[in-house]
Each structure stands twice: as C-alpha cells, then as structure tokens.
Amino acid sequence: MSAIYAVLFTGIILTGLGSAYYHTAPDNDRLVYDRIPMTIVFMSLFSATVAELIDQKAGVGLLVPLVLTGIISVLYWHYGELTGNGDLRLYFLVQYYPMLFIPLILWLFYRPGQNQGVRELVWVVVWYVIAKVLEHFDKEIYAAIKVISGHSLKHLAAAMATWWLVRMFRMKYIKSK
Q1: Residue 68: helix, strand or coil by DSSP?
Q2: Residues 6+ away with beta carbon under 8 Å from 59
Q3: In degrees to the nearest 10, what's the CA dihedral of 110, 114, 117, 121?
Q4: What is the rounded distance in angstroms from the CA atom of residue 11 to the CA atom of residue 71?
C-alpha cells in the first residue's frame, strides 16, 4: 500500500509543478507536463481504491499497468497532435473511468466497519466532479462574475480534492499508529 500512496502523492506534487510549467507559456508541448502527472494521480487513486476496498494484492498489482496506461494516453495524444491527428479518447477514459468506478466500487464493496476514509474518498470524487464542471463552464463563469474564470476555480476545487486525499491518508495511516 505504501507504494501506491507514494506514487499518488508524487503525482500530486508533479501535477502542481507541471501545471505551473504549462501555465507560464501554454501550448501542447507543455500540456504534456500538466497531463502526465494528472494521469498518475487518477490511476494511482483507482489502484488505491481497489486495494483498500476490493483486494489489496490486486490493487497493488494494478498500480504499474494503470499508471503506464495513463502516461501512454498522454503520449499517444501528443504524438497525434504532432502529426495533425490528436486523439484524446484514451486520455478521457483514463481521466473519467476512475471517477465513475470509484463510487461504484464504494457502493458494491463497502462493508460496515470500513468507515475509516470512506467519507473522505467520497469527498475527493465530489470535489473532482465540481472541478470538471467549473472547467467546462470556464468562459461562462468568467462572463458572469468577471473576477475569476472557471478554470481558476477548477484549480481550487482540485486542491480541495487533494485536501480530502491527505485527510483520508492521515486518518487511515498516520493517526492510527
């Protein structure tokens, strides 16, 4: 389990660095450095959810294939962009599959007495959904309030999702010792 969380939190740190790098001069080449770390977060969170709620060995075993799939999804898109035919379908699958299936896993595999961290995981998903809605309505939000864009608010919502992840990890693994 420690490997999964090490990859997850490394991905979060790299997402911050990659996002900062991308936003200093946005283009598709820099977007790779923003998207790859995010796929590491999505896939390692999915792996952790499988390990925590379904089977620890399976979750740990899924970590490397899932993270590699995430990285490949971005490289595939970027290669396509370079050749004039960018394809985001695999990246979208990597981005949305975990957030669709984590609630399903919670619903199907939650057992009474397994309360530690479940509420926090639900909040991670809720804040991620809020972030995606804010991102989708980026221009409309800016036009309505003229102070901040939906994209900027998306970053705040993603930070809230990260806060709930940290809270979940601390509750499960730090405070229990």
Answers
A1: helix
A2: 1, 4, 47, 48, 49, 50, 51, 52
A3: 0
A4: 11
**Residue 65 CB coordination number (10 Å):** 11
Cβ contacts of 48-55, under 8 Å, gap ≥ 24: 48/1, 48/4, 48/5, 48/8, 49/98, 49/102, 49/105, 49/106, 49/121, 50/105, 51/1, 51/4, 52/1, 52/117, 53/105, 53/106, 53/109, 53/110, 53/114, 54/105, 54/109
Q: What is the chain's alpha carbon radius of gyration, rounded to the nearest angstrom?
A: 17
Q: How many CB atoms lie within 10 A of CB 139?
A: 11
Find the DSSP H helices in the chain.
Answer: 2-24, 28-53, 56-82, 89-109, 118-136, 138-145, 150-169
Give pTM, 2 decimals: 0.92
Handedness of CA 161, 175, 50, 17 (dihedral sign): positive
| Distance in angstroms (rounded) separating the CA atoms of residues 45 and 43 | 5
Residue-wise pLDDT tens digits, 96-130: 999 999 999 999 998 877 767 888 999 999 999 99
Mean per-residue pLDDT of the chain: 94
Helix, coil or strand: residue 55: coil
Task: Encode pLDDT of 75-84 as tens digits.
Answer: 999 999 999 9
